[in-house]
Design goal:
The complex is a heterodimer. Chain A is 42% helix and 14% strand. Chain A is α+β, with helices and mostly antiparallel strands. In chain A, the strands form two sheets. In chain A, strands 1-2-3-4-5-6-7-11-10 form a nine-stranded mixed β-sheet, with helices on both faces. A two-stranded antiparallel ribbon of chain A has the order 8-9. By secondary structure, chain B is of the alpha+beta class. Chain B has nine helices and seven strands. Chain B is globular and about 65 Å long. The chains are: A alpha+beta, B alpha+beta. Chains A and B meet through α16, β8, β9, α19 and α20 of A and α1, α2, α4, α5 and α6 of B. β8 of chain A pairs parallel with β7 of chain B, so a sheet runs across the interface. Chain B: InterPro entries: DUF3726.
């Protein structure tokens, strides 16, 4: 048998496929919960000073082996007309910061004047993140009133929403004056990407369950009764929602090396598993079991958006085909995972292919989890342009990476109908209509295909043996995409091999890709550029976390059906 | 009040773009300003002054005429430290083979120093720079500074000499936190503002594309 190659970036790095990715063992939430369980982190509700109207603050601390981190939460009384998930909002139901260590009263006082303001406030190097969340009004009231009346909330209503609060932004890496990633990147617990943000959300979920209980108890007390304690299984079933818009979409384009490292880790993992000649009965049983459990997530995945409705229908049809395939296949011998993958590639939709590819990794923690160590990025070395590269070599590189773009007719309006720009209002990225709005002069460099094609044209009359340093002195306008091309030369999964400004581009594909690496499930697009997800649904709450439940929580237990 | 290095890099990139530099050069300006700020040097302050000086002028006028010349100079006898610096980084290999590159009449020479850090990282040997009473050596990660405060912040150097290899002595570690004067910050913010599209009701609606109520 020939060696099984890694999947070709030309196949993998298309928007439709990136927009079909699913969570895996390498997702950032699972990397975090595995570590915290393995290292036996301890969790402490240090402060909970919330009044009867739900206003006040709380401090929840996570103690790791060497350091502690505290979520400082501020709870607010938000009038409904101010509740907006948009970045232009100015007030929220709750606001948060993850503090490096244990805050003093002075820290809390300082932060109470800044965190509730979010973008309008300032933080310092002891703060690692800044975030906010809004209630699901419907579910929140249902849970509070049920508990206050001495009963439990209805699990069907909980399942239909999935969360009590959804975050609308979680800022890290130096935003608003917070600590730069460089200040903490050498700590083992933060070596993998987005661990600060994932820890913040994990503690936020705990805070929200404490807050909803507090509000129910307060309401019951006002009626002279006692509220019920929220059933632990129901509490566990709720995650934290996340509402994400265009602000996140350019991230993958703006961090090519980091993106490459995420994709490379997953592709290396898929290749390693496909390369196994045999699988043990235990491994096969585990895979079959998780297919069944993950299918339940797909069953309860609801979206009202036409694009996702269609994708979900295809995925559910795929699951039927997979079930038949698994019934008729022996997965123990003859490169079983490669056979399965190749069958999936020939038979299933992109959603189904990527679902199988992620699930194949599950039985192989020892083989796969180590790739997480290489998912972070330090851009210093790759940022510098290799000026001694010849124009001939650059031309070759461009035709290898960007042939699709060189062959695109960039004078056709539909191929450049959109333009990415930053709005004056909140300094956030937006996507506009190039030919209908006055935005082109503000365009951000987020169309690498078009720019690479333009570079290729400009090089046409330059001799092969010229150095790119000389070309760049004459053509500084190509410096950005030339750097990018050299990066992709070393980092083949760094580039999206698709048109990011066409009339058909769907920004939700980029959002889904990034959120799948976070570990999100049940993507629910609200438009072509806005998506809601659920994080940590079914995860053990901090006081329940153990090595037994730190990894599998993402897959619901199979519900027994009456025969 | 201190700033994170990411904030400095972000505003420097937008400001440089707002002054008329290409995106690729704006990225160089931003990385360089971040690098100087990390060593507690007045990168943001000098960048603000440079952008005022070269605001929206044709960049070719302040670019080196030739990279193979004995001494690099710009057509208008005032060379941009960002453009010359970026070229220096691009020419790391020829710096090594030539031993030195000399530049004439460079504006705000401190802004060219980060680029020798890039060259040094590429070559794997330290690179030195000097003008007047200012002498620097870096391996790209640490920086040795031997300079009078006045020489650091000069608005023009008659001659800068970059040379390699060089000896590291008394290196500084980066501090990873920076304070930028409020005057410089406002100046950079004014340049950055030019890159933002004015908001309209239509762009709010179309551009972000939410359009659904959130009280659900």
């Amino acid at each position: 048998m020939n060696e099984i190659p890694r999947r070709d970036p030309k196949t993998v790095m298309r928007l439709a496929r990136l927009g079909s990715l699913h969570q895996s063992r390498l997702s950032f939430m699972r990397i975090l919960t595995r570590r915290m369980a393995r290292e036996n982190w301890r969790f402490e509700k240090a402060t909970f000073e919330i009044d009867d109207t739900g206003v006040g603050h709380a401090v929840l601390t996570a103690h790791g082996p060497e350091r502690s981190y505290s979520l400082i939460a501020f709870a607010h009384d938000l009038p409904p007309e101010k509740r907006s998930d948009r970045v232009i909002a100015e007030a929220w139901d709750a606001t948060f910061t993850l503090f490096d260590g244990i805050p003093t009263n002075d820290d809390i006082e300082r932060l109470s004047r800044n965190i509730p303001l979010q973008e309008a406030g300032r933080v310092t190097g002891t703060e690692l993140s800044v975030s906010r969340a809004n209630r699901s009004v419907r579910l929140w009231e249902h849970v509070v009133s049920s508990l206050a009346a001495g009963g439990q909330p209805d699990s069907a209503q909980i399942d239909s929403v999935g969360y009590l609060m959804r975050t609308t932004a979680v800022y890290g890496s130096g935003k608003l004056g917070a600590a730069d990633r460089e200040m903490i990147a050498d700590r083992p617990e933060f070596r993998a990407p987005f661990q600060v943000e994932m820890l913040s959300v994990y503690l936020t979920r705990w805070f929200v369950t404490e807050l909803v209980q507090h509000m129910a108890s307060t309401r019951a007390a006002a009626n002279g009764t006692t509220a019920a304690r929220l059933d632990p299984a129901l509490a566990r079933s709720m995650g934290i929602g996340n509402s994400t818009g265009l602000g996140m979409a350019p991230f993958l384009l703006n961090h090519p090396v980091l993106f490459n490292n995420w994709m490379t880790a997953r592709e290396n993992a898929i290749q390693s598993v496909r390369s196994l000649a045999n699988a043990s009965e235990t491994e096969v049983t585990r895979f079959r079991n998780l297919i069944a459990r993950s299918s339940q997530t797909i069953d309860t995945w609801h979206s009202d958006h036409p694009i996702q409705i269609e994708k979900l229908a295809a995925l559910r049809a795929d699951i039927d085909l997979i079930t038949i395939y698994l019934k008729n296949s022996n997965l123990t011998a003859d490169h079983p995972w490669d056979r399965l993958y190749r069958w999936a590639e020939d038979t299933l939709s992109l959603e189904g292919q990527e679902w199988v590819a992620s699930l194949m990794l599950e039985p192989y923690g020892d083989l796969v989890d180590g790739f997480a160590e290489h998912m972070a990025a330090d851009n210093t070395a790759t940022f510098r342009i290799a000026g001694a590269m010849t124009v001939g070599n650059l031309r070759t590189l461009l035709t290898e990476i960007y042939s699709w773009a060189i062959d695109t007719n960039w004078s056709a309006p539909e191929n450049k109908a959109r333009a990415w720009y930053v709005s004056e209002e909140k300094l956030e990225p937006r996507l506009g209509e190039r030919f209908e709005e006055p935005i082109e002069e503000y365009e951000q460099p987020l169309a690498p295909g078009r720019d690479a094609a333009a570079l290729y044209q400009s090089l046409a009359h330059w001799p092969d043996d010229s150095h790119v340093s000389v070309f760049l002195l004459r053509h500084p306008e190509h410096r950005h995409v030339l750097r990018r091309t050299q990066i992709v030369g070393h980092a083949p999964y760094a580039e999206i091999r698709d048109n990011t400004i066409s009339a058909q581009v769907l920004p939700i594909d980029m959002l889904r890709c990034k959120l799948s690496f976070f570990g999100a499930t049940k993507f629910d697009p609200r438009s072509d550029r806005w998506v809601r997800i659920c994080m940590y649904g079914n995860a053990p709450l901090p006081y329940e976390l153990s090595t037994d439940n730190a990894d599998d929580w993402v897959f619901p237990q199979v519900k027994e059906h009456a025969a | 009040m201190t700033h994170s290095l990411n904030e400095i890099e972000a505003i420097a990139k937008r400001a440089a773009r707002g002054s008329g530099l290409s995106w690729g050069l704006a990225e160089e300006a931003a990385k360089g300003t971040r690098w100087l700020s990390a060593f507690d040097l007045p990168g943001a302050e000098l960048l603000a002054q440079l952008l005022v000086q070269n605001d929206r002028i044709p960049q070719i006028d302040v670019s080196p005429v030739s990279l193979s010349a004995e001494v690099w100079h710009a057509p208008m006898r005032r060379m941009s430290p960002l453009i010359a610096g970026a070229s220096l980084s691009d020419c790391a290999q020829s710096l090594l083979s030539r031993g030195q590159i000399i530049m004439e009449d460079v504006s705000f020479p401190l802004l060219a120093v980060p680029f020798m850090g890039g060259a040094s990282l590429r070559l794997g040997v330290p690179v030195a720079a000097s003008w007047d009473d200012a002498h620097f050596v870096t391996d790209g990660k640490l920086l040795c500074v031997n300079a009078a405060q006045t020489a650091l912040a000069v608005d023009r150097a008659n001659t800068i000499t970059f040379s390699t290899p060089a000896e590291m002595s008394g290196p500084r570690e980066p501090v990873l936190r920076a304070s930028v004067s409020s005057g410089a910050w406002s100046q950079l913010a004014a340049f950055a503002h030019r890159t933002y599209a004015p908001a309209t009701e239509e762009s709010r609606r179309l551009g972000a594309g939410a359009g659904l109520g959130d009280n659900d």
